[in-house]
Design goal:
Elements lengths: L1 H11 L2 H20 L1 H4 L17 H4 L4 H10 L15 H12 L18 H11 L1 H4 L16 H6 L2 H10 L21 H13 L4
Length: about 210
Amino acid sequence: MIIIGIIVCLSNSHIFDSKKSEAIAAGKKIYNKNCIFCHGEKGKGEGSKTGTALNSQNFLSSVSDKDLYNYVKYGREDTVMPAYGPRMSEKDLKNLAAFIRDWQTEEIEFDVPKTISGNPENGKAQYNLYCLNCHGKAGTGKDKMGTALANRQYLKYTTDKQIWIDAAYGREETRMGPSLKGHEGARQLKKKDITDIVTYIRSLEKK
């Protein structure tokens, strides 16, 4: 009973909300010092240098706090996104992830196939037709256009489901529009086509 009483008191004291607010405030300072130049003040990728949009409800609804932590800690080698693990403490990394998470205002449910395993050859053909202009040949990426999909860290810390969601639903208010048929995108692809594209992108990991 005593333990239950302590838990109730802690819950009513808003101590957890206070810690969350402190983490977000600390994360904002870290973001403004290290990330704003690429990802922009509002996180829309509007910085003076290359940076993807982090303040996207589609993106934030598809990634966990651990994913955000990994993206920052390990970066993307051979790109302008450095690994901040050697530069920041664990606390700083978690605070930064908390700040980015605070941009999320809604939780979106995505209609994603249970199994994402398709034809990589068809996926390559679809990729070259619809994705190459922004993401480059074989997913090498293009400055100010599209992220490097063949990047080792990207593929290691991003699931097939997350890649599928990005391709199908895009990131609102960016050039990465939706691709899934029935949505307001320039591309109107079937679920199978998107699955094939994801399978092709995943195959680049071995290369």
